[in-house]
Design brief:
The chain is mainly α and 499 residues long. The chain has two domains: 150 residues, no CATH class; 329 residues, Neurolysin, domain 3, CATH 1.10.1370.30. Helix content is 64%, strand content 3%. The protein contains 20 helices and three strands. It has a three-stranded mixed beta sheet. The protein is globular, with a radius of gyration of 23 Å. It starts with a helix and ends with a helix. 43% of the residues are buried.
Length: 499
């Protein structure tokens, strides 16, 4: 048995190696941010090679034989809980990675970089056939990836665990099924309601006007500009570390609420990232707890704050100043929460119908990976499911199966985490209100300090110390559950639509 000194030395060697691994991964993320935000379109061939080289280096560090030896040496060691968590997370990543050949990692990275401009062209030209071969390649590569990790398991389950390793695909399927069963009747009641919610917007709003508006929204919520920045991207996203967490947004000329919602959503992601402990940067203790938890933070700020009545009682004067409107807080609140079952675009969807968009994507990508759906049939199946779940059929591929970027970069298995995050956001909101008290009053006054503090203490500061459900229990005293989201949605929207 190793001595305490030997165990400590081994752990420190492992930790230093893991830090280097994280630094390489973070450098790759900066290149991806640049490609989507700043890089000229002609830079793609070089960027594909650069990203591929970093991905290969990252994979080589993760699969290094020495890392496996250190993990084996620490198997029976007497470790502190935080150290045991680091070893658990590193072991999981290492054991998955050693099964994947380096050349496959390189091929996936290069294919992802090359796929971006192909998708952009196909979307601009409204022609799925331009993207079909690229998608076929990505599906085959992800199948190969899943088979390398575990050839005896459902390949989609293996891919889902890249993004949510601990809740399980069964939980995801149960939640998606329950929300489909319980939200659709609510959506139908809303469609039958005689209530029409306010729409205070007329004409168009230029990018500069909307940029100034969402900057003020970030200021109001407490975005740390010393450790972040705001840019635009075709598909809004956030990326970074606890020292540099950037957000992007986009602007629709006739709908400034789209930019407000997107920006606050990405603010939630960035706030989580910035709330991770700085002293643990480069280790699992300074890393996020995967995408369901990450999405819970963006959905909390977007929906439970940004779509709330108290927020618009706070922010209406600012919005009116920028947009030259003369709307009351109630009008902005209604505009932020209007349900549009006929909406075709996921990122523009309301809180309720959004989850039908997720169900559709989940079913399609699952069937693609399992070989139950051919790539060439995706547009038809997409349109049929939109009709079945939301009663609307896209007229174009750009509004249908080409609207999302996720399959372009190989993020297959990602979509369920959006719904899981929304469900968790409501559970966290419920406990926040129990612990802090008058959250609505704090929001109304623009005093977000206690909200930030509660989220930091109960979620952010733990990094990846706990598995997902353990983190949920630490924060709320209960296991992950959908009840709070369904109760919140039912109460809020039946009140709005008097149904």
């Amino acid at each position: 048995m190793a001595t305490t000194t030997e165990t400590g030395e081994t752990y420190e060697q492992l930790l230093e190696h893991v830090r280097q691994l994280h630094y390489v991964g973070d450098a790759g993320s900066v290149l991806q941010w640049d490609q989507q935000v700043m890089m000229p379109s002609g830079g793609t061939p070089a960027r594909a090679k650069q990203s591929s080289a970093l991905s290969t280096l990252h994979h080589d560090l993760l699969t290094d034989d020495r890392l496996g030896e250190w993990l084996d040496e620490l198997d029976d060691a007497d470790l502190a809980p935080e150290q045991a968590a680091v070893v658990r997370e590193v072991r999981r990543d290492h054991e998955r990675a050693v099964r994947v050949p380096s050349d496959l990692v390189e091929r996936i990275s290069e294919a992802s970089s090359n796929a971006l401009p192909v998708w952009e062209e196909a979307k601009a030209e409204d022609d799925f056939e331009l993207f079909a071969d690229t998608l076929e390649e990505m599906v085959e590569l992800r199948r190969e990836y899943a088979a390398a990790i575990d050839p005896d398991r459902d390949p989609y389950e293996v891919l889902f665990e890249e993004y949510e390793p601990y809740l399980g695909i069964e939980t995801a399927e149960q939640v998606l099924t329950r929300l489909r069963e319980e939200l659709v009747p609510l959506i139908d009641d809303i469609a039958d309601s005689d209530v029409t919610l306010a729409d205070p917007f007329e004409g168009t709003y230029d990018d500069d006007t909307q940029h100034a508006l969402v900057e003020d929204a970030l200021d109001t919520l407490g975005y740390d500009w010393d450790h972040g920045r705001l840019d635009t991207a075709p598909h809004p996203f956030s990326t970074g570390t606890q020292f540099d967490a950037r957000v992007t947004t986009r602007f629709k000329p006739t709908d400034p609420m789209d930019a407000v919602g997107s920006t606050i959503h990405e603010f939630g992601h960035a706030t989580y990232t910035l709330g991770l402990p700085q002293e643990q940067y480069g280790t699992p203790l300074g890393d996020n707890r995967d995408l369901s938890v990450h999405e819970s933070q963006s959905r909390f700020w977007e929906n439970h704050v940004g779509r709330s009545r108290p927020f618009w009682e706070l922010f209406t004067e600012t919005a009116n100043d920028h947009l030259r409107t003369d709307a009351a807080p109630r009008e902005f609140y209604e505009a932020a929460n209007t349900v549009h079952p006929d909406n075709l675009i996921r990122v523009e969807a309301d809180e309720l119908t959004y989850h039908m968009h997720i169900v559709l994507r989940f079913e399609i990508e699952r069937d693609l990976i399992r070989g139950d759906l051919a790539v060439e049939d995706v547009p038809q199946v997409w349109n049929e499911k939109m009709d079945e779940y939301l009663g609307v059929r896209p007229d174009t591929d750009a509004e249908g199966c080409l609207q999302d970027i996720h399959w372009t970069n190989g993020a297959i298995g990602y979509f369920p985490t959006y719904t899981l995050g929304s469900v968790l956001a409501a559970q966290l909101d419920h406990q926040l209100r129990a612990d802090v008290g008058d959250v609505d009053g704090l929001v109304r006054e623009g005093d977000f300090g206690d909200v930030h503090e509660w989220l930091t203490q109960n979620v952010h500061r733990h990094g990846a110390r706990y598995e997902t459900d353990d983190l949920v229990r630490e924060a709320t005293g209960e296991s992950f559950r959908a009840d709070y989201f369904l109760e919140y949605a039912d109460a809020k929207y039946r009140d709005l639509y008097d149904c």
